[in-house]
Q: What sequence folds into this?
């Protein structure tokens, strides 16, 4: 993080939702060294004590203050990052609008449809805050707080200045709220769609006993992609984050539908991401794609796909 007097001053930074993205950003800043960071995550309201303790441990690990409510987290904050799941983004904005400080920047970093972000923007702006449409354009590891982001909306200039202060990497997507999210959503058709295609293709090939031939053929057709390594990586991503990716892809489907196009591919991606994410598989770091395929297949066999 850059040193010196930041324009956010002693108002501090708050996070609504403290999962992978938020913890990665704060870890990159080495939070606590320069100014106050507070966070609220709905998991601290869970009935399961182990879940609560695990989230509290996340706060301690990066040196921030966890709060018991959203109101406490964002009270007086000059900068608020919303990093919840896509299906909770508008709810988070609705709740934040009740407590947001005047002129506070509300950076909506969630993977939502443009229409969803526009509704959230109306809530925040009506409450006196400054809503910013932020699209996170790459995985947060290993780049942490330097993960590339796109920003759009009327408060883009202020958000870009903030990004410089916080040593973040951001650029403008020229346009109103929804422009940055449109880029992210439409890109996700391909990114998350490839993951779903890899699942279906590799799992089918493994069951048929032809996975080596299939992936060797793909390597010839798409040289340099390294399908065996990528397949293993993509399967790990879906087993670990499939539920969150499915929520994002539902927003993608809304984006496509709003453009007057068929969302069939996006909906199919939702199905695979949700199906495998729901298995709650903990992927081993040293597993290759065959091992991961076998584990997924074993779990799928134990919970057969329901006929639609």
A:
């Amino acid at each position: 993080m850059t040193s010196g007097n930041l324009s956010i001053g002693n108002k501090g930074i708050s996070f609504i939702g403290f999962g992978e993205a938020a913890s990665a950003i704060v870890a990159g800043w080495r939070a606590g060294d320069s100014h106050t960071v507070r966070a609220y995550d709905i998991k601290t309201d869970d009935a399961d004590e182990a879940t609560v303790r695990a989230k509290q441990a996340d706060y301690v690990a990066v040196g921030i203050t966890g709060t018991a409510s959203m109101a406490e987290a964002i009270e007086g904050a000059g900068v608020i990052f919303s990093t919840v799941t896509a299906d909770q983004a508008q709810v988070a904005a609705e709740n934040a609008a009740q407590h947001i400080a005047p002129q506070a920047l509300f950076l909506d970093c969630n993977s939502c449809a443009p229409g969803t972000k526009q509704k959230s923007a109306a809530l925040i702006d009506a409450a006196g805050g400054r809503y910013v449409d932020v699209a996170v354009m790459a995985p947060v590891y290993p780049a942490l707080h330097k993960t590339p982001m796109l920003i759009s909306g009327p408060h883009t200039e202020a958000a870009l200045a903030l990004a410089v202060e916080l040593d973040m990497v951001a650029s403008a997507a020229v346009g109103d709220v929804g422009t940055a999210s449109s880029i992210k959503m439409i890109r996700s058709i391909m990114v998350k769609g490839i993951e779903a295609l890899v699942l279906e293709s590799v799992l089918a090939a493994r069951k048929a006993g032809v996975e080596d031939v299939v992936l060797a053929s793909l390597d010839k057709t798409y040289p340099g992609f390294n399908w065996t390594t990528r397949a293993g990586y993509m399967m790990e991503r879906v087993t670990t984050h499939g539920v969150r990716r499915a929520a994002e892809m539902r927003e993608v489907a809304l984006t496509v539908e709003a453009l007057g196009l068929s969302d069939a591919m996006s909906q199919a991606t939702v199905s695979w991401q949700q199906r495998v994410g729901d298995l709650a598989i903990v992927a081993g770091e040293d597993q290759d794609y065959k091992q991961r395929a076998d584990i997924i297949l074993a779990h799928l066999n134990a919970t057969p796909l329901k006929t639609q």
